[in-house]
C-alpha cells in the first residue's frame, strides 16, 4: 500500500494576540490507501487540527504534508482548494447538507465543483446515491431524511469525483447506533473495496471495530504505541 | 450549477418579501424622482418645443421664456424682409390675473399667437378648435386647470386683468411648470390682456425657408434686426430648462431626492442580502471546505442579487405604471420613457450587485475550518 496522505514532523501554533498556543508538536502520520484509520483522543488533543491540515483546510506551522504524493505544505493559499477538490472528500459531524437543495442536487453541487455537469452529473449523482442506498430519495429535501440518511447523502457527496482520501469528523456523533454502524460499514467498504484512504476522527467507542488502525492523540502528539484494531 | 442561489433566495419567504420591498421602494422612488425631473424639464420649455419654428427673436438678454420684454413690432417687418425667412409671427407669453367666478384671482400665463397660421398655438385641443380663437375675447384653457380657474364649460365668461375673456375650447395635458395655467388666445387679445401697447410684441417666431442655411440666416437676422437676440428654438428651450431646473435649484432638489432613493435602495438591499448570506454562511463555509474557489461562491451571491434585482424591478415597474398613470391628472407629470425604464433596469442591477459586494467581503474572509467547529 502507498500513502494517500503523509504527514511529517508537523507543528501547528495558533497565535491569539500576543499569545502563541501550540496545538501540534512534531506529528508524524500516514494514511495508506485501502485502510480505515480511527483518530481518537480527548477534546483539545489536536485531532481536528490534524484532520484540517491533512485536508488542506489549515496550514501547518512547520513540517511536511503530502497528499497523493504531492507536497502541499508550501503551496500558495489559492492552490489549496484545487488540491481539496481533486483528492479529498469530507464528511462532517453535522452533515452540512444544503437544506434548500434536494438530495440529488446536493450531490450534483459537489460534482459541479469538479466540472461534472448536466446529464452526466445527474447520472453520476443517481449512481452515488444508489451506492449509499438512497436512490429513491433523489428528489427529497434533507429535512425529510433521518440523521442516518443525511449522513449517507454526505458520504455520497464526499465520493463525488472519486477522491483518494475521505476525511470524516465525528460522522456517527449525531446518529443512533444502528445508523452509526451503517455509516461505518460504508466507510470500511470505501477503504477495503474501493481502495480509498479513510480517516475518521471520533470519540465514539462503538465504531472501534471498523478501524484498521486506531491512532490516539494526546496533547498534540501521537500517543505511542499505535494500536492495531480488533477487526 | 444546481439552483443554490434561487433556492437560498426563496427559502425564507419573509426575507424575500423584505428584500423585494426594499428594491421596489428604491426603484419606485427613483422612477418618481427621475420622472418628475424629466416631466418638469419637458414642461418648462413645452411652449418653445411645440412651436415648431426655427428661431425665437427675443429682447436682448432674455434668460427664459417667462422673462420676455416688450419691443417694437416693427422689427417683424425687418425679419420678414430677410431672405430665407418663410414666415414670422408676433408672439406673447406673459403673466396676467384671471378672475374666478367666486371673486378670487388666479395668476395665468397668457399665450398670444397668430390664429391664422396657428404657429405657437395650443396642441391637444379636445374641445373647440384653434380657429375659434380668431374671435374677440376668445380664450382656450387646459382641462387640468379648469377647476382651478373655475371653468366648467365652453362659453363661460371670465375676466383677465379686467377684460372680458370667453372660453371657446379646452386643451388636455398642457402643463405649466410654474403651475400658473396657460391661457391661449389671439395675439391681439393677448396684447390687451397683458396690457402691452398696440405696437409691441414680446417675441417673434421665425420659420426658415426649407433648405436654407440656418446658421447663415441666424447671422443675417442678427445683423438686420438690432437690439434683440436671435436664438434657435433649441437654444432658447435649453436656456429655459436650465434656468428652471438648475438656476432656481428646483431640478437639483429632485435629482438629490433621486440619488437618495438610490442610496436608500443600496442600503436596504445590502442589508437584506447580507442577512441572507449570513443565514447561509455555514453552507458557504462547507463549499469552501469542499474546495469551491471564492469565485464560485461570489457567483452564487451575485446570482442571488441579480434575481432579486430582476424580480424587484418587474414589481417596481408594475407599481410605477400606476403612479405614472395617476400623475397624468395631477399637477406634476411623471414621465417614464422607455429609455429611462431601460436605464433604471441597469441601475437596479448595479444597485443590487453593489449591495452584494458587502456580503462577498464577508465570505472572502470566511475560514473553511469553521465546518469542523460544532
Distance between the termini of chain B: 28 Å
Order of helices and strands of chain A: EEEHEEHEHHHEHEEEE
In spatial order, strands of the major sheet of chain B run 3-4-9-6-8-7
Structural class call of chain B reads alpha+beta
Keywords:
heterodimer, A: alpha/beta, globular, B: 374 residues, alpha+beta, 6-stranded mixed barrel, two-stranded antiparallel ribbon, 19% strand
Overview of this structure, please?
Chain A is an alpha/beta fold and 231 residues long. Chain A is built from six helices and eleven strands. In chain A, the strands form two sheets. In chain A, strands 3, 6, 7, 8, 9, 10 and 11 form a seven-stranded mixed β-sheet that branches. In chain A, strand 7, helix 6 and strand 8 form a beta-alpha-beta unit. The longest helix of chain A is centred in the last third of the chain and has 16 residues. Chain A is globular and about 50 Å long. The model of chain B has no long low-confidence stretch (mean pLDDT 89). In chain B, 51% of the residues lie in helices and 19% in strands. In chain B, a hairpin with a 5-residue loop joins strand 3 and strand 4. In chain B, the strands form two sheets. Chain B has a six-stranded mixed beta barrel with strand order 3-4-9-6-8-7. Chain B has a two-stranded antiparallel ribbon with strand order 2-10. Chain B is an alpha+beta fold and 374 residues long. In chain B, helix 2 runs antiparallel to helix 9 and helix 9 packs across helix 12. At the A-B interface, helix 1, helix 2 and helix 3 of A face helix 1 and helix 10 of B.
Amino acid at each position: 500500500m502507498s500513502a494517500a496522505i503523509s504527514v511529517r514532523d508537523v507543528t501547528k501554533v495558533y497565535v491569539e494576540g500576543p499569545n502563541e498556543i501550540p496545538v501540534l508538536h512534531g506529528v508524524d502520520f500516514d494514511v495508506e490507501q485501502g485502510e480505515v484509520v480511527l483518530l481518537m483522543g480527548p477534546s483539545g488533543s489536536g485531532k481536528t487540527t490534524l484532520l484540517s491540515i491533512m485536508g488542506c483546510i489549515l496550514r501547518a506551522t512547520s513540517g511536511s504534508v503530502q497528499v497523493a504524493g504531492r507536497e502541499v505544505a508550501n503551496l500558495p493559499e489559492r492552490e489549496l482548494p484545487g488540491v481539496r477538490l481533486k483528492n479529498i472528500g469530507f464528511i462532517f459531524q453535522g452533515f452540512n447538507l444544503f437544506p434548500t437543495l434536494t438530495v440529488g442536487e446536493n450531490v450534483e453541487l459537489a460534482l459541479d465543483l469538479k466540472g461534472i455537469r448536466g446529464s452526466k452529473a445527474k447520472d453520476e449523482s443517481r449512481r452515488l446515491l444508489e451506492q449509499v442506498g438512497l436512490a429513491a430519495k433523489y428528489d427529497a429535501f434533507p429535512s425529510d431524511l433521518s440523521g442516518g440518511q443525511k449522513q449517507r447523502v454526505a458520504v455520497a457527496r464526499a465520493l463525488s469525483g472519486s477522491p483518494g482520501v475521505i476525511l470524516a469528523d465525528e460522522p456517527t456523533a449525531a446518529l443512533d447506533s444502528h445508523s452509526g454502524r451503517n455509516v461505518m460499514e460504508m466507510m470500511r467498504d470505501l477503504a477495503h473495496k474501493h481502495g480509498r484512504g479513510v480517516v475518521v476522527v471520533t470519540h465514539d467507542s462503538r465504531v472501534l471495530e471498523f478501524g484498521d488502525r486506531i491512532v490516539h492523540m494526546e496533547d498534540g502528539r501521537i500517543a505511542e504505541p499505535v494500536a492495531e484494531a480488533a477487526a | 450549477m444546481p439552483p443554490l442561489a434561487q433556492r437560498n433566495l426563496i427559502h425564507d419567504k419573509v426575507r424575500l418579501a423584505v428584500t423585494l420591498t426594499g428594491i421596489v421602494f428604491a426603484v419606485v422612488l427613483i422612477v418618481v424622482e427621475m420622472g418628475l425631473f424629466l416631466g418638469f424639464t419637458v414642461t418648462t420649455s413645452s411652449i418653445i418645443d411645440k412651436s415648431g419654428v426655427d428661431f425665437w427673436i427675443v429682447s436682448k438678454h432674455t434668460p427664459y421664456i417667462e422673462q420676455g420684454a416688450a419691443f417694437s413690432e416693427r422689427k417683424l417687418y425687418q425679419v420678414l424682409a430677410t431672405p430665407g425667412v418663410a414666415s414670422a409671427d408676433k408672439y406673447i407669453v406673459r403673466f396676467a390675473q384671471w378672475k374666478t367666478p367666486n371673486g378670487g384671482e388666479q395668476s395665468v400665463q397668457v399665450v398670444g399667437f397668430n390664429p391664422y397660421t396657428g404657429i405657437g398655438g395650443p396642441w391637444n385641443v379636445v374641445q373647440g378648435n384653434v380657429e375659434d380663437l380668431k374671435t374677440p375675447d376668445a380664450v382656450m384653457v387646459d382641462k387640468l386647470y379648469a377647476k382651478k380657474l373655475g371653468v366648467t364649460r365652453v362659453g363661460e365668461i371670465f375676466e383677465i386683468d379686467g377684460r372680458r375673456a370667453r372660453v371657446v375650447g379646452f386643451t388636455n395635458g398642457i402643463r405649466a411648470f410654474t403651475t400658473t395655467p396657460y391661457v391661449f388666445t389671439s395675439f391681439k387679445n393677448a396684447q390687451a390682456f397683458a396690457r402691452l401697447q398696440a405696437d409691441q410684441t414680446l417675441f417673434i417666431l421665425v420659420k426658415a425657408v426649407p433648405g436654407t442655411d440656418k446658421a447663415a440666416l441666424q447671422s443675417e437676422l442678427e445683423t438686420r434686426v438690432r437690439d434683440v437676440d436671435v436664438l434657435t428654438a433649441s437654444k432658447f428651450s435649453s436656456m429655459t430648462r436650465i434656468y428652471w431646473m438648475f438656476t432656481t435649484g428646483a431640478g437639483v432638489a429632485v435629482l438629490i431626492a433621486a440619488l437618495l432613493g438610490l442610496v436608500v435602495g443600496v442600503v436596504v438591499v445590502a442589508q437584506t442580502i447580507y442577512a441572507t448570506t449570513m443565514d447561509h454562511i455555514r453552507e458557504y463555509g462547507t463549499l469552501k471546505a469542499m474546495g469551491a474557489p471564492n469565485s464560485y461562491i461570489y457567483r452564487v451571491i451575485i446570482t442571488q442579487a441579480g434575481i432579486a434585482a430582476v424580480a424587484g424591478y418587474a414589481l417596481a415597474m408594475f407599481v410605477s405604471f400606476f403612479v405614472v398613470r395617476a400623475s397624468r391628472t395631477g399637477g406634476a407629470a411623471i414621465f417614464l420613457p422607455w429609455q429611462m425604464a431601460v436605464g433604471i433596469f441597469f441601475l437596479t442591477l448595479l444597485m443590487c450587485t453593489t449591495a452584494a459586494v458587502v456580503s462577498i467581503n464577508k465570505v472572502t474572509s470566511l475560514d473553511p475550518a469553521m465546518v469542523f467547529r460544532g
